[in-house]
Write a structure and sequence with these properties.
One of its GO terms (molecular function) is ADP-heptose-lipopolysaccharide heptosyltransferase activity. By secondary structure, the protein is an alpha/beta fold. It contains 7 helices and 5 strands.
């Protein structure tokens, strides 16, 4: 089954901002985005987005391969977040379920505008394709390093994609992997 990220919301909310987003590290006022970052413990300087959905006709990359790449990058200290459409949780959830390491599951948790902001702050995006309005298209517009798997000739292995992802991440001045990522569990605060 093909995933069509954000299609129900794309008609109401544009994935691409009207004006270019602020560069990495710049602060914009967005209460939804700030709440998402705080609640999930997102560390923008080491955030890698995995978007297993596709807009194109090419066959989707297997979820196991996404999980392998995500596990390799998480072991390097990158914070992995799975993003995608809430209406097709089987594909995004399958990637998370196939992973051996912790990851944030953000599929369906944000508006397209908030997702665009997250893409602008991420250090790397991996997705099946670059068709509009995909996260790869947004990443290209915002200058975030990315890999669109449908642009890779032949059968791309998870090892080859992980090598290319590491090379892209190494070129990011403001990207800093940390200790292997441990899942942040938000604390629930009792109302006073």
């Amino acid at each position: 089954m093909r995933s069509h990220p954000l299609t129900p919301l794309a008609d109401e909310l544009a994935l691409m901002p009207d004006a270019p987003a602020a560069p990495h590290g710049a602060v914009e006022q967005d209460p939804d985005y700030d709440e998402l970052v705080a609640f999930h413990g997102i560390e923008r300087e080491r955030l890698v987005l995995i978007h297993p959905g596709s807009h194109g006709a090419a066959p989707a990359w297997p979820v196991e391969r996404y999980a392998e790449v995500a596990d390799q990058l998480a072991a390097d200290g990158w914070q992995i977040a799975i993003v995608g459409d809430a209406l097709e949780p089987e594909r995004t959830g399958a990637v998370l379920g196939a992973m051996q390491t912790a990851a944030l599951f953000l599929a369906g948790t944000m508006s397209p505008a908030t997702l665009t902001r997250l893409i602008g702050d991420a250090r790397f995006v991996l997705s099946d394709d670059a068709a509009l309005p995909s996260p790869v298209a947004a990443a290209r517009e915002l200058g975030t390093p990315q890999i669109a798997l449908d642009e890779r000739p032949g059968d791309a292995t998870s090892e080859a994609i992980a090598i290319d992802a590491r090379a892209a991440l190494a070129g990011e001045d403001t990207a800093h992997p940390g200790d292997p990522f441990t899942l942040h569990t938000p604390a629930l605060h009792a109302a006073a």
